[in-house]
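hey
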């Protein structure tokens, strides 16, 4: 077993969720959960109660998409259409149990996984009929390596003309990891576009400036200003200063919003990738919940 740094209410809620995921039984009564929290992360029952309240709020937001049932007496795991993706985002969250232990250096793979989930979610940003595409390179969609050519490729995929602004060939992605849009049936100019930066790093505010909308307006001939999105795998306390600070400069798409967007698609399919199941399995060697 290993020492874990878990202190905030959101982090304790994540720890409880992770513990239930790795537990063979898949459920904890309140007394057992209090004992486990005191032993493994040094959290008193008062903080556990606050974390359970946070989990109850998550359940209210996500409904049946939330893969846990929460009450004052117990927490239990349940299967659902979004369980695997929720587990992935939980593991990808900065400061998570997985990031502190078994996935401390797996950043490239984790970044790609967040982009994959974000692409599926943001395609539903405006409901059914929307589209999204990862803009990173190498690309499963065939994006050219040169940034100049890549912007032209992206413009064709979206259905707009390339802009006349200079596009440095050595630039990678212009701060954009995923692009989402919603064409109208008439295929005429003037439709919504969103540019998303996806990050697994803990310091999120510095990432809000990665997308320069003025530059992108010169690279793509968009008739309406695009939205700028910041996609993160974690959650942020709604009433706290961090959310207010981020929301003033960018639209935040956190774990709960990603799950909500995934659920808007008519053909949504959960993806229990080998990385997700392997990470959960590896955690059983470092968490006390694996014995309960």
């Amino acid at each position: 077993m290993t020492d874990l740094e878990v202190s905030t209410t959101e982090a304790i809620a994540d720890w409880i969720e992770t513990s239930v995921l790795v537990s063979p039984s898949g459920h904890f009564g309140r007394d057992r959960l209090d004992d486990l929290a005191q032993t493994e992360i040094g959290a008193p029952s008062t903080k556990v109660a606050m974390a359970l309240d946070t989990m109850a709020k998550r359940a209210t937001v996500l409904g049946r998409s939330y893969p846990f049932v929460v009450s004052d007496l117990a927490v239990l795991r349940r299967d659902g259409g979004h369980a695997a993706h929720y587990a992935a985002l939980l593991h990808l969250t900065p400061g998570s149990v997985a990031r502190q232990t078994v996935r401390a250096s797996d950043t490239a793979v984790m970044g790609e996984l967040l982009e994959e989930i974000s692409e599926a979610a943001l395609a539903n940003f405006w409901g059914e009929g929307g589209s999204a595409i990862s803009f990173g390179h190498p690309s499963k969609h065939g994006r050219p390596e040169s940034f100049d050519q890549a912007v032209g490729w992206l413009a064709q995929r979206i259905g707009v003309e390339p802009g006349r602004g200079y596009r440095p060939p050595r630039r990678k992605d212009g701060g954009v990891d995923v692009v989402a849009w919603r064409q109208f049936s008439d295929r005429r100019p003037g439709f919504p576009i969103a540019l998303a930066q996806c990050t697994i790093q803990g310091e999120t505010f510095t990432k809000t400036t990665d997308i320069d909308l003025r530059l992108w307006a010169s690279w793509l001939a968009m008739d309406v200003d695009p939205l700028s999105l910041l996609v993160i795998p974690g959650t942020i306390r709604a009433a706290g200063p961090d959310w207010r600070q981020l929301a003033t400069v960018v639209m935040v798409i956190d774990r709960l919003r990603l799950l909500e967007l995934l659920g808007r698609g008519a053909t949504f399919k959960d993806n229990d990738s080998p990385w997700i199941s392997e990470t959960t399995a590896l955690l059983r060697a470092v968490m006390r919940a694996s014995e309960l």
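The mean pLDDT is 92. Strands lie at 27-29, 68-70, 74-77, 131-134, 161-162, 178-181, 193-198, 220-221, 227-231, 251-253.
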